[in-house]
Structures are given as structure tokens and as C-alpha cells.
């Protein structure tokens, strides 16, 4: 796989770790009642929304609430599987593909709203665009970087079947 694949895995591992924490503590406040969270987490979410001018978090349009439900129910468990499963590469390849396609599918309507509404600041866009890059990178990781390359004999012969030894 080489150094390039290792670099992609390290970047994805970092993103998945951030997502695992942020989705459960901050993103879930968009679709769950604030009374379920300690005050310091509610204050942190409000500070982030104010600091970046994130009107989607403050206004909570219905499509954004639905996207955060998808993130909480589908994407968050996949991020956890990816964090824990980097030893089982076939699992990571499959879950990266699933996660990446899901992130791209959810980021397109959010970024479309942010860009076309004219309400988003550059600071807010720079917060959201890396997640689209994460989706693309995770999808490409799932499609293009297989860890299990079957060995193909170079002499053109089929691999021989191993026989059991008899005592």
C-alpha cells in the first residue's frame, strides 16, 4: 500500500476520532432535547454556532435535523467501527466506502444551502468544506486502496490446491 495509503489512513483516523467525539457531544444537540446534555456542552454548541455564524445550527431547518439524525444513527457508528477496526482492513475498506458516500450525500444539501443562500461567512464555509473532503477521501479509500491483494501467479498457472497429509 505504501506511504501514501498510510498517510490517508492517518488522516481518516484523525477525522473519525474528531467525528466520534463531536457527533455525539455537539451534533446530537441539534436533534435531541438540550435537557439531555450538561450545561457546558450546550454552552459549547452555542459558542460554536455564534463564533462561526452557523445559522443552520441556530435555526434548525427540518432538513438539517434529519441530516443530524442520519449522522447520529448511521455515520457515528461507522466512525466508531473505523476507529476500532483499522486492524481488520476489509472492514475498514467497506465502512469507509459506506461512510464516505453517506457524508457526501449529506454535505451536498448543506453546502448548497450555505453557498446559495448568501448567509454563510467564509469562516463558516471553511468549517464545512473539509467534511466534504473527508467524504471524498473516505470513499476513495474504500474504493481504491484495497489491503487484500490476492497473489496472482506470474507464470500463468492456476494456484495448486493443497493436499492433506495422511498419516
Describe the structure.
InterPro entries: EXPERA, Sigma-2_receptor-like, Sigma2_recept. It is found in: Endoplasmic reticulum membrane. It is a multi-pass membrane protein. This protein is 71% helix and 0% strand. It is mainly alpha-helical and 167 residues long. It has one domain. Helix 1 packs across helix 4, helix 4 runs antiparallel to helix 5 and helix 5 runs antiparallel to helix 6.
In short:
The protein is mainly alpha-helical and 167 residues long. Helix content is 71%, strand content 0%.
What is the CA–CA distance across the termini? 41 Å
Shape: elongated
Count structural domains: 1
Task: Kindly name the structural category.
Answer: mainly alpha
Strand content: under 5%
Helix fraction bin: over 70%
Report the strand count.
0
Mean pLDDT across the residues is 86
| Count of helix runs | 6
The description of the largest β-sheet is: none
- Radius of gyration using CA atoms only: 21 Å
Low-confidence stretches: 148-154
Q: Give the ordered list of helices and strands.
A: HHHHHH
Amino acid at each position: 500500500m505504501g506511504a501514501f495509503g498510510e498517510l490517508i489512513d492517518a488522516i481518516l483516523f484523525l477525522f473519525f476520532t474528531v467525528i466520534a467525539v463531536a457527533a455525539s457531544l455537539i451534533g446530537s444537540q441539534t436533534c435531541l432535547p438540550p435537557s439531555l446534555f450538561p450545561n457546558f456542552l450546550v454552552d459549547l454548541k452555542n459558542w460554536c454556532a455564534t463564533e462561526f455564524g452557523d445559522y443552520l445550527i441556530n435555526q434548525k431547518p427540518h432538513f438539517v435535523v434529519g441530516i443530524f439524525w442520519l449522522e447520529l444513527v448511521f455515520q457515528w457508528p461507522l466512525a466508531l467501527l473505523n476507529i476500532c477496526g483499522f486492524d481488520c482492513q476489509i472492514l475498514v475498506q467497506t465502512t469507509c466506502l459506506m461512510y464516505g458516500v453517506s457524508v457526501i450525500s449529506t454535505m451536498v444539501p448543506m453546502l448548497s444551502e450555505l453557498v446559495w443562500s448568501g448567509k454563510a461567512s467564509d469562516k463558516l464555509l471553511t468549517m464545512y468544506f473539509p467534511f466534504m473532503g473527508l467524504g471524498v477521501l473516505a470513499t476513495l479509500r474504500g474504493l481504491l486502496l484495497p489491503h487484500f491483494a490476492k497473489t496472482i501467479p506470474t507464470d500463468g498457472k492456476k494456484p495448486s490446491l493443497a493436499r492433506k497429509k495422511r498419516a
